[in-house]
Amino acid sequence: MSFVKRIIRARPVQEALGGLVAGYLKLVRRTNRFVMEPADAYDRIGPMMPVIAAMWHGQHFMIHFAKRPEDRAASLVSRSGDGEFNAIALRHLGVRAIRGSGARGRDIRKKGGVAAMRAMLRALGDGEMVVMTADIPKIARVCGEGIVTLAQMSGRPIVPVAVVTSRRMDFDSWDKASIGLPFGRGAMVLGDPIHVPRDADPQTLEALRQSVERELDAVHERAYGLIGQKDPGAKVRAERHGTALAGGSRA
């Protein structure tokens, strides 16, 4: 590890940077004029709480904007060095971090996926909303099995969420991550809840996995449409059909 990385990953430095990022995101939230769709989203979703809020990778910076102040929330965050930084920022924003990430094959235990699944089930059982990405690292906008499995085991519905701003920085990363800038317009779109029966067979689970994928695409397309722009991840979506993931994500 380089000297610069060692400095950045030092706990005091990460605490300071995490606090700065959280403060910046609060500024973005305050200075953008947001519209929510549907307008009665909280009235519809509130009685279903706690829910599993689904997002695509790259949208994690602003997804908490859609959380009501009274909603207790936990978010799945990877065990990586970058994940530690994100966990600190989330703490300042009132969101508890559950450490672990989706993976494939033998990576599941190494990345803490099994322990994270148990922790998310406990959180939902205790009344906390759980926020997690539907796709796994390096395979953008392909919904994996993890989020559907969590919904099946917990009995809680999945709610696809998109939060975007007209002024933002888009990164040339695998997940097309973006972070909002102050003084613009924003949109928050919540999709229809997706319920996963506890006794769902493999065919039903696959159909519901595809439903989550379609709904996440739809809420992102609609959110960008509300601010008069096109979804920068549309290209990833178009390419996805030729690179569909077999097996999917496991939390």
Count of folded domains? 1
Give the overall average pLDDT. Answer: 88
Please provide the ordered H/E string of secondary-structure elements.
HHEHEEHEHHEHEEEEHH
Counting copies of identical and different chains, the oligomeric state is single chain
How many beta-strand runs? Answer: 9
Q: Biggest sheet, strands in spatial order?
A: 1-9-6-2-5-3-4
- Span of the ends, CA to CA: 28 Å
User: Over all CA atoms, what is the radius of gyration?
Assistant: 17 Å
| Proportion in β-strands | 15-25%
Low-confidence stretches: 244-251
Task: Explain how this protein is built.
The chain is built from 9 helices and 9 strands. It is of the alpha/beta class and 251 residues long. Residues 244-251 have low confidence and may be disordered. It has a 7-stranded mixed β-sheet, sandwiched between helices. A two-stranded antiparallel ribbon has the order 7-8. It has one domain (11-240). Helix 2 (11-31) crosses helix 4 (81-92) and helix 6 (113-125) runs parallel beside helix 7 (146-154). It comes from Microvirga subterranea. This is DUF374 domain-containing protein. Pfam families: DUF374. Residues 68-139 form the DUF374 domain. InterPro entries: DUF374.
